[in-house]
Specification:
Length: about 250
């Protein structure tokens, strides 16, 4: 298997896209650290990996909390002694029109989606630097590229991730660490399940492929970027959106 012997961390691996990514990387031979804000939910994905014959470690982490992230990396160092792949996937929405957006909703989204990725990446490059290589994938969003009314906080966090990706890619290219972003379109998960039927119909009309994406569509793209096939790709923003935005 192409990821045999590699250790991967997937933040927000309990559900949706993160779960699909964790399972895909495990199927390709990686040992996977799965995190979520609840140990039980992270453990559920870890158990699925174990059932596949893989190796997984579940850890409770709130990525917006720096001490939680530092404790996570201490644990990874203790258990695996290294990290080869980081997927910054944990993310939340707190939607609302700008005039009514509360500062707490702005902060929660930016702290989880953008600061969380920053702190995880800062810790990860320490381990990857020692190992002389690694792959980082940041899960941004199509709305970080095109904007979306009612999601100023979320779009700012996802657009921020793109600038972050390109900057870190430039800083670490010589150290053999690739840093890329994926911008998913509309993917069927708990995050999008809350949207009304009217909003879903309207979104579907904007997708040339004529279907919503599945978490596995994103997992396949992550695998491509972190495998040997993606070794010369860095600072790239890969759209996986069925043609919704190009
Ligand atoms: P989801 O089903 O709501 O899952 C979110 C995941 O993030 C869960 O595992 C959740 O863990 C975790 N999480 C949330 N807050 C966290 C925190 N503070 N610390 C650690 N983990 C946290 O969402 P999804 O649709 O799979 O989205 C995954 C990523 O893709 C997000 O970054 C999202 O913005 C992005 N994305 C999604 C879509 C889409 O259409 N679904 C489109 C573009 C981008 P718990 O189980 O503990 O809550």
């Amino acid at each position: 298997m192409s990821l045999s012997g590699r250790t991967a961390l997937v933040t927000g691996g309990s559900r949706g896209i993160g779960r699909a990514v964790a399972l895909k990387l495990a199927r390709e031979g990686a040992e996977v650290v799965v995190t979520a804000t609840s140990l039980e939910r992270a453990q559920k994905t870890a158990d699925e990996i174990t059932a596949l014959g893989g190796k997984a470690l579940a850890v409770k982490v709130d990525v917006s909390n720096t001490s939680d992230v530092e404790a996570l990396f201490a644990r990874i160092t203790e258990v695996f002694g290294k990290l080869d792949i980081l997927v910054n996937n944990a993310g939340i929405t707190r939607d609302g029109l700008l005039m009514r957006m509360k500062e707490a909703d702005w902060d929660a989204v930016l702290d989880t989606n953008l600061k969380g990725a920053f702190v995880c990446t800062r810790e990860a490059v320490k381990l990857m630097g020692k190992a002389k290589g690694g792959s980082i994938v940041n899960i941004s969003s199509v709305v970080g590229e095109m904007g979306n009314a009612g999601q100023a906080n979320y779009c700012a966090s996802k657009a921020g991730l793109i600038g972050f990706t390109k900057s870190v890619a430039k800083e670490y290219a010589k150290r053999n660490i690739t840093v890329n972003a994926i911008t998913p379109g509309f993917i069927e998960t708990d995050m999008t399940d809350v949207l009304s039927a009217t909003v879903k119909e309207d979104l579907l009309r904007q997708i040339p492929a004529g279907r919503f994406g599945k978490p596995e569509d994103i997992a396949n793209a992550v695998f491509f970027l972190v495998s040997a096939m993606g070794s010369y790709i860095t600072g790239h923003v890969l759209s996986v959106n069925g043609g919704m935005y190009m």
